[in-house]
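Extended Data, record SET domain-containing protein
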Amino acid sequence: MTSAQKNKIRVGRSSAGLGIFALKELRKNELVGEYTGEKISAAEGDRRGGKYLFTIDKQTVIDGKSRRNTARYFNHSCKPNCYVEINERTKRIFIHAKRRVLPGEELTYNYGKEYFNEYIKPFGCKCTAHASKN
């Protein structure tokens, strides 16, 4: 976690296990975190497999399995309060607040259809958008 992130977010218990929570109010579009890890080829990502692979482009994947990658704790939501920005030129992934976020709120983004179908749907989505429907 960078020093800037330490002032904004913390890792804590959530409905889906561990999650990221706002420590202070976040403004719309404010940078909240960066998804970091080993940059590998898409072929190597296919070989390794795993839940923490994040595709940057057709050739590059970030393997974010290291616990030093605090952004791995952002959980999925079907109604997220954050969004992901992929910079293909610099091969970096940034997470921003989608709207104003209040202290104590869990920070989430939509993991996308492919990830959802492979890792979430078979076990049932645990995001608050689904929890409120039950």
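Summary. The longest strand covers residues 9-14.
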